Amino acid sequence: MSYFNFVRRKRGLCFPGLAVLATSSLLAGCAAVGRLPTLEPGDYQFFRTNDPALAAAVGQDRAFYVEQAHDSLLFLSQPASGTARHFSYPVRRGHHVLLLDRKFDLDVFTIPFKARPPQGPVPVQLNTNFNAALYFGRRLDFYHVNSKQLLNGHQTPQIRTVGLGYGLFTGLGSTIINPDVTNQQTRIAEYEGFVVHAGAAAIYDARIFNLGLAIGADQLLGPDGRSWLYQRKPWFGVLFGLDLN
Questions:
Q1: Contacts of 210 (CB under 8 A, 6+ apart)
Q2: ∠ CA 57-59-62, rounded to 5°
Q3: In this structure, are residues 212 and 171 in contact, taking their beta carbons and an 8 Å threshold?
Q4: In DSSP terms, which residues pair with 196 in a beta bridge?
Q5: Rounded CA gap, 113 and 74, in Å?
Q6: What's the CA dihedral at 85, 90, 91, 92 to 10 degrees?
Q7: What is the DSSP string of the chain?
Q8: For residue 3, what are the contacts with CB-CB under 8 A and spacing of at least 6?
Q9: C-alpha pair distances (Å), 33 with each of 10, 36, 203, 211, 244
Q10: How far apart are alpha carbons 169 and 114 in whole angstroms?
Q11: What is the separation of C-alpha 220 from the centre of its chain, rounded to a whole number of angstroms?
């Protein structure tokens, strides 16, 4: 089916930022972990290229429907005003194009550890108990498309991708409760308390695994919550998940 027959949607313009520029440099330096056999057809934001011919063809437009056809990319623009344009770009060795796809992301993560700042007489704590989180946020997928030469001398498109995200999370977990962290108020020598946590995170998606840096706070359920030193106090941790798709 030709790409002109796909349902096309309008996208907003991409925003500049340090995270976007850093990702552009990462991809241009061939440091992306994820690799794709082909570029999935869909709506993308044109970000940058080192090919003057493609830059001239793109012009002022940034929102495109893009489809890969063998060793070429087919571009279709749908500007808010004016006439739609379409053109084909053959991917050549030594040139690249960087495309951006933005969307919302919903995922489930584990939290391998939480680092808790010192509270009162208790020094820095490292909590490695079970923790899980439901994450919802904004996702930025960057696609770096260039060409590589095969052993037979032919050239084929090479696609590398990396994703960045930022958003909020909430979840459940456990933590060790003892007299030292409750101002000697707990009646039990030691037990695992049930906590509800929430916070914000920045996510890196390498297509194989997802890794994030998080800052959050815990709410200890039960009567010891009133005397728990870390009740609603900030902690720092890591989110981790595997891409099973």
A1: 107, 109, 203, 204, 239, 240, 241, 242, 243
A2: 110
A3: no
A4: 172, 219
A5: 46
A6: -130
A7: --GGGS-----PPPPP-HHHHHHHHHHHTT---EEESSPPPEEEEEEEES-HHHHHHHTT--EEEEEEETTEEEEEE--SSS--EEEEEE--TT--EEEEEEEEEEEEEE---EEE--BTTB--EEE-S-EEEEEEEEEEEEEEEEEEE-TTS-EEEEEEEEEEEEEEEEEEEEEEE-GGGTTT--SSS-EEEEEEEEEEEEEEE-SSEEEEEEEEEEEE-SGGGGT-TTBT-EEEEEEEEE---
A8: 41, 65, 67, 69, 74, 76
A9: 29, 10, 14, 13, 16
A10: 14
A11: 30
Tokens of 166: 């930022």
Over residues 135-167, the pLDDT tens digits come to 999 999 999 999 887 777 777 888 999 899 999
Residue with tokens 């870390």: 230
Residues 26-71 pLDDT 10s: 444 334 357 888 899 999 999 999 999 999 998 888 899 999 988 8
List the one residue out of 175, 154, 169 whose CA is nearest residue 201: 169
Three-class DSSP labels, 153-196: CCEEEEEEEEEEEEEEEEEEEEEEECHHHCCCCCCCCCEEEEEE
Quote the pTM value. 0.74
In DSSP terms, 19 is beta-bridged to none
> Is the Cβ–Cβ distance between 176 and 129 less than 8 Å?
yes
CB atoms within 10 A of CB 111: 26
Q: Which pLDDT does position 33 carry in this prediction? A: 54
Location of structure tokens 């995200």:
165
